[in-house]
Every structure is written in structure tokens, then in C-alpha cells.
Predict the 3D structure of the following.
Amino acid sequence: MTPQADTAAVAARPRVRQAAAPAERRIPRSWHVFKRTIDVAIAGTALVVLSPVVLLATLGIAVVSPGSPFFLQERVGKDGRRFRLFKLRTMVDGAHLFHDDMRALNEVDGPVLKIRNDPRLHRLGKLLRRTSIDELPNLINVLRGDMSIVGPRPPLPQEVAHYDDYARRRLTVKPGITCLWQISGRSNVSFDEWMRLDNLYIDTWTPLGDLAIVAKTLPAVLRGEGAH
């Protein structure tokens, strides 16, 4: 074959399109300012409006279970920074010490532990979880800057130890009280789907998108789907 024929043959072959490397997403600074402003406004207002609910819950916990009504737990936040998460206690005092012993009862896949009828729950525990009242003190973490209103839920250190690179992307944004996982079935969602939803949020979040998630959170809480 002549050189001219070789050149013509190469030119006639279909070109293989090279996949472009995903470009780093640039978030406008104004979006971060707006997000923080909304965080403070919603968290501050919600703490004032819902303080009677928190007060009643703390009194109820004190009646049915000895120990502090509040529970502080170490969680992992943005860039791996650890912080103390504020919650209302839904289990008997000291239940966290038996975390590893409950693995045989785990009902979900992945490194997380979710048990629908956890034997460590006190008498009000299931109600507090189903209504998400136990998470209202998370609003304090939002005001402190540990968390945002919208973002992936903050994991436990022992969960992060089992993350692959895909799951570890959750730590590139500030954790939140609600996110796509909360409005998509929560504990009824597989671990892989949970990670997919969190990565989808990371890649597509916008201020208006955050407000849409907040608007969908209350109906999701009222349905109580996957809340255990």
C-alpha cells in the first residue's frame, strides 16, 4: 500500500472520542454566603419556635430513663474534622458502649448500624426517632458552624474507617441535618444508593436546591419512612 493510501485509510477510520476528566466544580462565593445565612436564620428561628417541643421531650426522657436527656456523640465533619453532635437521647444511658455487640441485629448493608426495633431504645426512643425530634439539638451544631441545614449526615469515625474514595467524598462538604437521603426513604435506602444520593448532592447543589430539600423534609418526617 502506498503512503498516500495509508494516510487515506487512517483518515477514514472513525475517531475515538476521549472521555474528558471531570472538571472541578466552581461554587460562587455568594452561594456559600447565602447558604450560611440561611443556616443561621433557619436554625435560630427553629430553636426558638421548637424549644417547647425540646423541653417536653427532655422532661419525658428524664421520666422514662435515668441519665441526661441529651447525648453528645463524636462525628466526622468537613475535611475529616471531628466534632461533638448534640442529640436527644433515644436509648438507655450508656447504650453506645454496646454498639459493636449489636452488629448481629443490623438490618442494613455497609458500615452503618440501623436496627428497626433496637433493644437499647427507651420507651420514648422510637417516637423520638420516627418524628426526628431527637435531631432537633443538631440545630445547635448548625449555629456553631459544625453543620449546615442541608448536607450529608455526619458519620461516625468507625464508619469513615471503612469508606472507599467514593464514600469519602461526603467529607468534602459540611454535613447537614437533612439531604437527599432523608427525603428518599432514609434507612430503607441501601448504603450504595445513600452514597450515590450524597455524591449527587455534592455535584449539583445550589441555594435554591437546598431550599427545595428543606421544603420536602417536613412531609418526609411526617411520613416517618425509614426513620429508625
Observations:
- The first helix runs from residue 3 to 12.
- The beta strands are 70-76, 82-88, 148-150, 176-178.
